Amino acid sequence: MGMLEGKTAVVTGAGRGIGRGIALALAKAGAKVVVNDLGTGLDGEGVATGPAAKVVEEIVKVGGTAVPNYGSVADYKQATEMVEQAVKTWGRIDILVNVAGILRDRMIFNMSKEEWDAVLAVHLDGTFFCTRAASIAMREQKAGRIISMSSVSALGSPGQPNYGAAKAGIIGLTWSTANAMAKYNVTANAIMPSGATRMIDSTPRGKKIFDETGKWPSEQAIGTERDPDNVAPLVVFLASDAAAHVNGQVFHSFGYGYTLLAQPQPIRRIDADRRLDPEELVKLLPETFGPGLHEPPGTLFGKNLPERSKDEWKEVGRGVRFWQWPREER
Ligand SMILES: NC(=O)c1ccc[n+]([C@@H]2O[C@H](COP(=O)([O-])OP(=O)(O)OC[C@H]3O[C@@H](n4cnc5c(N)ncnc54)[C@H](O)[C@@H]3O)[C@@H](O)[C@H]2O)c1
Q1: Assessment of whether the complete model's pTM goes beyond 0.90
Q2: Is 163 part of the annotated catalytic residue set?
Q3: Gap between the Cα atoms of 190 and 184, Å rounded
Q4: Is 207 among the catalytic positions?
Q5: Nearest-angstrom CA–CA distance, 7 and 22
Q6: Residue 257 burial (CB count, 10 A)
């Protein structure tokens, strides 16, 4: 019996890339899946039913259960309906995975209001609309799992102010939902995924790889550390009963491994017995908070962990090793 036998799921943006891999893996684990995808271009322009229909076909072909949904997560009514489709079709919604996404990259000083609005609408509004609708059913059921795709771009990607803000917003939304829904046995977690999809093809690095090799990163990824399907096992785990204790966490999925992020933690503070003057801060802050301030990590986050000293890694068997931040408080 699969880990998710008898459960029902909605996966948004499941017609391609990371979402497709998640929908297939949930179905393989026994869940019945609403496969949502608007079938847009990377910039959110255009629509097509092909991507969602094809993934449904793939699931059904191997004996799984799935139905398509062609709505937009950025449309409040359509987002609500795609969640309700699971309830109407199978009586409940156990799992919501927010994956749908687009890109409109531009430096902050060049970004138009339209580029800002379009990206915020799909990522942040879309995640809110679907999460809101699912939380209503999950609260009544007193059970549920919400898993949303954030991104390392939330940590300061310079050319993605709209996307970075939306992805950081998804973390705030996840934490709020986690704290609000815990008493109903509903968990909410976020993943900063990675995988060579068309999103990566569109980056300067993706184009460079194409120029050098004649193939897009997405064409070379299957079965490698860059395979977008590497995200799915973590999603299946988080969606399962085995992850009942995992709530309000942010993970980074990179290569064949997963990183758990620290919760934000106060690191320095000055305290006074009165309101401080700005002039005093000119002297006090460099002496206390700085120098030694760290800049935001940006998209390089977590990528150098494999290079950390061997002593920091512990073999746990079956080709798996474990690293823990030496300064982590338990
Ligand atoms: N690929 C990566 O390395 C990476 C890194 C960080 C975060 N992410 C995030 O992971 C998610 C999946 O990315 P991907 O690389 O698989 O992208 P992708 O472009 O391959 O797939 C995204 C899918 O979302 C669909 N979609 C777009 N707008 C929609 C809407 N309004 N309603 C419903 N569906 C819509 C698209 O049609 C597409 O099929 C996104 O949220 C992305 O921001 C990806």
Answers
A1: yes
A2: yes
A3: 19
A4: no
A5: 15
A6: 17
What proportion of the chain, given as a percentage, has pLDDT over 70? Answer: 100
Mutate to test the pocket of ligand 1, among 43, 77, 99 (most ligand atoms within 8 A of CB): 99
**CATH of segment(s) 8-260:** 3.40.50.720
Residue with tokens 């987002």: 79
Q: Which two tokens stand for residue 173?
A: 């939304």
From ligand 1's centre to the CA of 241, what distance in Å? 26
CA–CA dist 297, 313 (Å, integer)? 22
202 is catalytic: no
The pLDDT score that the predictor gives to residue 1 is 80
> Which residue is closest in CA terms to ligand 1's atom 6?
151
Non-local (6+) Cβ contacts of 185 within 8 A are: 142, 143, 144, 244
Average pLDDT, whole number, for the chain?
Answer: 96
Residue 158, amino acid: P
Q: Is 93 in the pocket of ligand 1 (CB under 6 A)?
A: no
Q: Is the pLDDT of residue 287 over 90?
A: yes
The owner of tokens 């973590």 is 234
Gyration radius from the chain CA atoms: 21
